[in-house]
Amino acid sequence: MMLKEILRDCEYMGRGAESKLAGESIDPALDIEGIAYDSRKVQKGFLFVAIQGEKFDGHDFLEKAIAQGAVAVACEEDIGKRSPEIRYIQVNNSRKALACMANNFYERPSESLSLIGITGTNGKTTTSYLLKSILETTGETVGLIGTIQYMIKDQVFPAVHTTPEAPEFQCLLKEMLLSGCRFVVSEVSSHALAQYRVDGTAFHTAIFTNLTRDHLDFHKTMDEYFHAKVRLFTELLVRTGTAVINLDDVSGLNLSMAMRAGEGGPGQIITYGIETQADLLARDITNSFEGLRFTVLFRGDAYEILSPLTGMPNVYNILAAAGAAVSLGLPWKAIIQGIRNASSIRGRFEKVEAGQEFLCIIDYAHTEDALERLIRTARELLDKKSTARAAHAAPRIITVFGCGGDRDRGKRPKMGEIATKLSDFVIITSDNPRSEEPGTIIRDIEDGVTGKNYLVEVDRREAICKAVYMAREGDIVLVAGKGHEEYQEIKSAKHRFSDREVIEEVLKVRPGI
Predict the structure, then answer these.
(1) CATH tag for 109-341 (out of 3.40.1190.10, 2.20.25.100, 3.40.50.300, 3.30.450.20)
(2) Using CA atoms, how far apart are residues 465 and 302, in angstroms rounded to an integer?
(3) φ, ψ at 417 (rounded to 5°)
(4) Under CATH, to which class is 3-105 assigned?
(5) With respect to CATH, is domain 350-509 assigned 3.90.190.20?
(6) Residue (of 16, 14, 86) closest to 48 by Cα position
(7) What is the largest CA-CA distance in the chain?
(8) N or C: which end of the chain has fewer CB within 10 A?
(9) Residues 418, 372: contact at Cβ < 8 Å?
(10) pTM, 2 dp
(11) pLDDT tens column, 256-284
(12) Where are the domains of the chain?
């Protein structure tokens, strides 16, 4: 593709003759074979865009990119005097430029798709799979971009980020379009929104699930975190699109009010909730180990919902998916059937069973709000299920969890407080310590603990083993924090580790199973 086509509508400094190559302008007809922001991935004929990463600055690798075969670079620095031999385009913001250029290079695929974006602290993944199931019930071929994996029809690719960087994101959309997908469901993380990874993308529906404390190591304040999420609705949602918003969440309520009060908002706003009056309301909720049953009220009609998913958080996820499906004009028959067809999502309140007389659950809960919802869901199920007689000890909730290293330290004591208050017993352990010492993270967690119903086991495998061996008939063992992940990140290295596999191994050898 010609350089001038890649630069279409992109903001960059020195348009035309001021873009220098040893004192001469870059030929706008220069042929570009690809775009990369990682110098190691540059190939012959590529345009290299220098961005500031978490650990490295792309501006330090300009010469390497050229050596790898880049025919031009885009960067924020005026490098004409430093490196007069390099063809360069100076931009105000490399990340914005990367998003715009990638979107152009892949021929703006979102404009030919119905793209649904889901943002929020919790519930994004489950909501995405629910909506995918609903769409597939109608016979549609659906693309999926999210935390667990990326899916193009029957092809599955590992997910490096919840929302990939701009070139990978636009490439996925283009591949989905070429594969016959008319609909794409994408989780959109706050990092992606703050770093402009999806800028230039046309979202036709945007879902706001909730906002609770997370990622404050990156966003610094809850206001910054919220405003990053809001960009999906105020800057990236097409004018004729639909915003689907959780009104039971205070940030969702504020977002809805602001959008209704402002000018130039989306074509439609669909709200949902359980406690607050909304367009989609859940009533008569029955929650059990077998799943959920409830009624959805929508514009004067009532619809009976059955789902194999468990817990009140999944009522919200179902409402969010239903709201998005309504915005796409899907019939309620397909919505109801799609919800019923969506089975347990990997690492989201996922049961691990081997015939034991107690329940083992793994869950991705890694924020204080998610951990509280997880334990309260287990408690509600335990209270309903319990048939303990006077001769037997009451069933317990045993929770295993840790906190990630190099991330928001402020949530650690809060999670320690929640876990020990709501669980009968807690084993505090490692999550992904990254570059931090696990003992330091655990001490931060212990700062919030008020009782003595816990022990510390730094080794996550041993912690899970202890919890499983400790469990009695009727107990629920919750292993939280990693969910679908199959690794532990320790000292910048990833080591193979799966909560599910560890539980399965222990259940095979535990006496009495």
Answers:
(1) 3.40.1190.10
(2) 46
(3) -65, -50
(4) alpha beta
(5) yes
(6) 86
(7) 89
(8) C
(9) yes
(10) 0.90
(11) 998 888 755 678 999 999 999 999 999 99
(12) 3-105, 109-341, 350-509
